[in-house]
Amino acid sequence: MIFSAVLDTNALYPFSLRDTLLRLAELELYIPLWSARILEEMTRNLTERQITQDQAARITKAMRAAFEEAEVDAAEIERLEPAMTNDPKDRHVLAAAVAADCELIVTFNRDDFPPEACDPFGIEAIHPDDFLLDLLDLNPEAVR
Fold first, then answer.
1. Chain centroid to CA 144: how far?
2. For residue 35, which of 6, 20, 96, 135 is within the disulfide window of CB 3.0 to 4.6 Å?
3. Among 21, 22, 63, which residue's Cα sits nearest to residue 40?
């Protein structure tokens, strides 16, 4: 059974990691999820440090087109966010995972998603390296 994972902004920011995560999703090793806010944050970070607004908009448009079902409902995230107890700046990410009935958040900021905030919802925050290694264990041939 294929599983889903919310990709936090910091996992989508580095080009090579974003490319790898999305290529593995194209192979249907997992279903990527994000919110409009996650994509807005990614765009803002990219344009502040690396690329133009037009380039960032093309990336976001391509991601949305390639994974039409990836974007979690904003109204549901907004409804759930006040109940989240993790780091305030990342409550929308946990709310997206809860709204999508997802078990994983792929993030470099695991400290922002402590077990006491995630466990009640059956969600785990996982480092991108560990996530990729898990995908490798599940399907070595596809990941190679």
1. 22
2. 96
3. 63
**Two structure tokens written together for 126:** 């996982």
Does residue 35 have a pLDDT over 80? yes
**Could you count the other beta carbons within 10 Å of the beta carbon of residue 142?**
13
> Cα dist. 65→49, 62, 103, 126 in Å?
25, 5, 24, 26
Tens of pLDDT, residues 55-75: 999 999 999 999 999 999 999
Cα separation of 70 and 76, whole Å? Answer: 14
List the end-to-end C-alpha distance of the chain, in Å, as a whole number. 20
Could you say which DSSP state residue 73 is in? P
54 vs 71: CA distance, rounded Å: 21
DSSP state of 113: S
User: From residue 55, how far is each of 46, 47, 50, 70, 141 by CA, in Å?
Assistant: 9, 8, 10, 21, 32
Cα 82 to Cα 17: distance, rounded to the nearest angstrom: 30
